[in-house]
């Protein structure tokens, strides 16, 4: 009888487990060795044996824990056995184009030494080239739900031979409105298939999806109690919005990150920060990259390749890369704009500290954004440490110029030459101590609490 889900035996112990004990073939072990994978993570040690046994698994695990490898290996093991033919034998659904490319790359890396072929299909690329690749009958197809449906409607993708379906980042796919597409796809898949569902969180919509389309799934929770892993140091700066870019420059100079992602809230803001950084860093402007949803897919692919190979050292981005992108050399995350939702903070920060490596995350907080920071602290059950750069004025303390009186002259207006007597100002009220960060510092957020 298999161990119950959630027990140490079911989840695995990466400190004592070995890939050779997980039931993998010699071909897979050789590919793992070639890829430099030595010890399985808890996700891999727990998920791989159950997936190889053919059971449906609902696995909860955040990004950066090795879950891509955990579902790729069982799929490759199944592909070694002869199939029915007539279409792909495995389908992987992902929320973003970048994640589709990443999963496809992982398949290519771990399929070394075999003839198993994987194709990625997603929007933003000419569909004709994808149709040509699908005509060669790949064993594995990775794609976004919208483009998968497009191929289904054109008759260029058949699921008659499908044996295993994987939903990666399921909560994210539902968040961005893919639920109807996913359900249409799953209804077209053979009922005898095996289904693997991986998700960072398991809210009610994900549970409902699992109940409806999975067969008695084993629930395996590989998430830690703390949403923010211990290897990530998290700090915040209080700063006036007009001084944020100056703070960013000073922070980059101080930290000298190996690689950093600077998160902005809007596409326009992302372009602005990227352009200013590229101009200021004139010695090596190519080290600064930019990525958001309005860029063409070819540009996004080129930037991500450059970021992965280290040519781009600083990536300015929207939340399009907030989930699922695994670049292990990212040492710093900078939230130039505080995220609107707490879960976005968790996934942004998760871009560093990958696979147990150390990382640091900084968040810029404006005078009116104290409540957002408090909500984040409550969500991760941790107080962020306040940081400051000696000598840097985080708030513009210059007095604002007095308004100029306009005097009509022959149908036009000009500024008055003589000063206009201003009304007597009211005596200034001393601000309450609770609103100050201290002498010489800017306003503090409303409260700090768990």
Q: Output the strand order for the largest sheet.
A: 3-4-2-5-6-1-7
Identify the CATH architecture of the largest domain.
3-Layer(aba) Sandwich
CATH fold type of the largest domain: Rossmann fold
Secondary structure: helix percent: 25-40%
| Biggest β-sheet strands, sense, barrel | 7 strands, parallel
Number of strands: 16
Say which CATH homologous superfamily of the largest domain is assigned: P-loop containing nucleotide triphosphate hydrolases
Q: Would you summarize the structure shown here?
A:
The chain is 34% helix and 16% strand.
Features:
single chain; 450 residues; alpha/beta; Rossmann fold; seven-stranded parallel β-sheet; 16 strands; disordered N terminus
Report what the structure shows.
- With 450 residues, the protein is an alpha/beta fold.
- It folds into two domains: 8-221, P-loop containing nucleotide triphosphate hydrolases (Rossmann fold, 3-Layer(aba) Sandwich); 232-386, P-loop containing nucleotide triphosphate hydrolases (Rossmann fold, 3-Layer(aba) Sandwich), CATH 3.40.50.
- The protein is 34% helix and 16% strand.
- It contains 15 helices and 16 strands.
- It has helices spanning 8-11, 26-35, 42-52, 67-80, 97-110, 127-134, 145-154, 170-175, 179-188, 204-213, 244-255, 267-280, 297-308, 342-349, 370-380; strands spanning 57-60, 90-93, 118-121, 140-143, 164-167, 194-199, 218-221, 232-238, 260-263, 288-291, 314-317, 332-335, 359-365, 385-386, 406-409, 412-415.
- Strands 3-4-2-5-6-1-7 form a seven-stranded parallel sheet, sandwiched between helices. A seven-stranded parallel sheet has the order 10-11-9-12-13-8-14, with helices on both faces.
- α4 (67-80) crosses α5 (97-110) and α7 packs across α9 (179-188).
- It is elongated.
């Amino acid at each position: 009888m298999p161990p119950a889900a959630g027990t140490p035996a079911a989840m695995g112990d990466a400190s004592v487990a070995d890939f050779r004990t997980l039931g993998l073939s010699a071909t897979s072990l050789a590919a793992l060795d070639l890829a430099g994978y030595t010890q399985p993570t808890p996700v891999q040690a727990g998920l791989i044996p159950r997936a190889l046994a053919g059971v449906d698994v609902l696995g909860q695990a955040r990004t950066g824990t090795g879950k891509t490898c955990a579902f790729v290996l069982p799929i490759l093991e199944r592909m070694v056995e002869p199939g029915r033919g007539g279409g792909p034998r495995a389908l992987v659904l992902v929320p973003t184009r970048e994640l589709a490319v990443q999963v496809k790359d992982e398949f290519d890396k771990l399929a070394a030494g075999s003839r198993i072929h994987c194709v990625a299909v997603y929007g933003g690329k000419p569909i004709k080239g994808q149709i040509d690749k699908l005509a060669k009958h790949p064993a594995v197809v990775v794609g976004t739900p919208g483009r998968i449906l497009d191929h289904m409607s054109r008759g260029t993708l058949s699921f008659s031979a499908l044996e295993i379906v994987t939903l990666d980042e399921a909560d994210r796919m539902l968040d961005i409105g893919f639920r109807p597409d996913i359900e249409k796809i799953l209804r077209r898949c053979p009922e005898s298939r095996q289904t693997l569902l991986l998700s960072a969180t398991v809210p009610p919509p994900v549970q409902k999806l699992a109940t409806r389309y999975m067969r008695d799934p084993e629930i395996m929770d590989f998430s830690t109690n703390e949403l923010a892993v211990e290897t990530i140091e998290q700090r915040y700066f209080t700063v006036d919005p007009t001084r944020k870019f100056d703070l960013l420059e000073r922070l980059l100079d101080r930290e000298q990150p190996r690689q950093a992602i600077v998160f902005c809230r809007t596409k326009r803001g992302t372009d602005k920060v990227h352009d200013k950084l590229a101009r200021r860093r004139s010695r090596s402007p190519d080290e600064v990259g930019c990525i958001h949803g309005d860029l063409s897919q070819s540009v996004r692919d080129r930037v991500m390749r450059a970021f992965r190979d280290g040519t781009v050292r600083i990536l300015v981005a929207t939340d399009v890369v907030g989930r699922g992108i695994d670049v292990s050399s990212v040492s710093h995350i900078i939230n130039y704009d505080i995220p609107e939702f707490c879960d976005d903070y968790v996934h942004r920060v998760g871009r560093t500290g990958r696979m147990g490596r150390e990382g640091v995350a900084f968040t810029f907080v404006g005078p009116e954004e104290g409540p957002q920071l408090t909500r984040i602290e409550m969500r991760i059950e941790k107080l962020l440490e306040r940081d400051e750069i000696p000598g840097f004025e985080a708030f513009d303390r210059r007095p604002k110029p007095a308004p100029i009186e306009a005097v009509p002259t022959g149908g036009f207006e000009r500024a008055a030459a003589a000063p206009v007597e201003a009304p007597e100002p009211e005596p200034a009220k001393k601000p309450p101590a609770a609103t100050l960060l201290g002498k010489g510092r800017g306003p503090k957020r409303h409260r700090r609490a768990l």
